[in-house]
């Protein structure tokens, strides 16, 4: 593995940092209050090429490798997590299924505009009764009716629903078929039978607007089905490791933000006649953040490198990176908050937001207990590479 950053990678990082410093960072508190990342800003990110990610240039993307994608997302997340979430979608759970399994027409109508910031989408998987175990307990039903499919069900916690022009979603033909009953569909916003209610006043990830979606006899033309009937599972899973890479890169960016905020405050706040940074217990917290940043970066780079080598699945490494970076972030955010004393509570000091967002990151992209289970099962030999199973 080569840890050096190339001139092209640095130029992309600098471009993202410059944009985020000027156009995002000064307004984040407003986005938090509005509980929405402005669409115009996301469009601007598209114009600048910050959304194209790993999608090939032929489909409007940047054709980045995964190492470069992770560097970009870390940089954006340093300034604002939601901006990094948006920049990751075309490469992750939303765009990757379209790239791998979409028809040329679907790529033209959804993937290319998604990379260019001309269309936005949402990945609608989670349901009220199932999150972690969604693959086994999908309740949204799918019925074929002539050249259409009819969907009935509810999806919840769906990010970017308000700004979405389309939804990539899933239902089952027959629950008794298990994974082989799952179908994937692209649903255009505004389709009759699709309704939504926003989920407001979240404790964390506030500017990542979320909503509950209702499908009531929602008719989807068969040209909007992704993959053959019953193979939607492949679409559901194909962005998993890349999604965990993106989540880990975002967490790493936020660890860096916690460290910088803590260092700056510890140097200027005086207690008993000296800056609090002079106290060893404060130095220990800051040292922990630096170690956490370095270990997180190494795990993210390793996972990205594995994916760049063409690893079909890097399930264990993705779980290790996701678990470590988000647990480390939670600790760093807690320590940065503590170092700020009462001022940690004040909006202008940001560490309160880092703390609230960190909690959410332990839950989405797979609850961390599930990642512990995956790692443990690999270690115990209860999971095996696909080749060993056949
Ligand atoms: C801000 C935000 C944005 C989101 N955006 C989206 C989106 O865009 N699209 C979408 O489809 N979903 C989205 N989600 C939902 C997210 O994917 C789910 O919250 C996640 O999958 C966990 O599901 P759950 O909340 O139903 O928790 P559950 O599955 O009910 O789990 C609850 C708790 O049980 C424990 N647990 C779970 N599994 C295990 C295990 N194997 N071993 C031990 N303990 C376990 C954990 O403590 C876990 O937190 C979002 C959620 C949030 C908070």
Q: How would you write the strand order of the largest sheet? A: 1-4-5-8
Assign the CATH topology of the largest domain: Butyryl-CoA Dehydrogenase, subunit A, domain 3
Total number of strands:
10
| Ligand roster | flavin-adenine dinucleotide
SSE pattern, N- to C-terminal: HHHHHHHEHEEEEEEEHHEEHHHHH
Estimate what percentage of residues fall within beta strands: 15-25%
Q: Which CATH class of the largest domain is shown? A: Mainly Alpha
Distance between the termini: 31 Å
Q: What's the CATH H-level homologous superfamily of the largest domain?
A: Butyryl-CoA Dehydrogenase, subunit A, domain 3
Corresponding CATH architecture of the largest domain: Up-down Bundle
Query: Segments where pLDDT lies below 50 for 5+ residues?
Result: none
The overall number of domains is: 3
Helix count from the secondary structure assignment: 15
Calculate Rg over CA atoms: 21 Å
What structural category do the secondary elements indicate?
A: alpha+beta
How would you describe the shape?
globular
Averaged pLDDT, please? 96
Description of the molecule:
The protein is α+β, with helices and mostly antiparallel strands and 390 residues long. The protein folds into three domains: 7-116, Orthogonal Bundle (Butyryl-Coa Dehydrogenase, subunit A, domain 1), CATH 1.10.540.10; 121-236, Butyryl-CoA Dehydrogenase, subunit A, domain 2 (Beta Barrel), CATH 2.40.110.10; 239-389, Butyryl-CoA Dehydrogenase, subunit A, domain 3. The chain has 15 helices and ten strands. It has helices spanning 7-24, 28-34, 39-47, 66-79, 81-88, 95-101, 104-116, 134-137, 232-238, 240-268, 280-308, 315-339, 351-361, 368-380, 386-389; strands at residues 121-124, 141-145, 148-159, 166-172, 182-188, 194-199, 210-221, 225-226, 270-271, 274-275. The strands form three sheets. It has a four-stranded mixed β-sheet. It has a four-stranded antiparallel β-sheet with strand order 2-3-7-6, with no helix packed on it. The protein has a two-stranded antiparallel sheet with strand order 9-10. Strand 2 (141-145) and strand 3 (148-159) form a beta hairpin. Helix 11 (280-308) packs antiparallel against helix 12. The chain is globular and about 80 Å long. The chain starts with 6 loop residues before the first helix and ends with a helix. The model has no long low-confidence stretch (mean pLDDT 96). The structure holds flavin-adenine dinucleotide (FAD). Flavin-adenine dinucleotide is lined by residues 122-126, 131-132, 157-159, 205, 208, 210, 360, 363-364, 367, 369-370, 373.
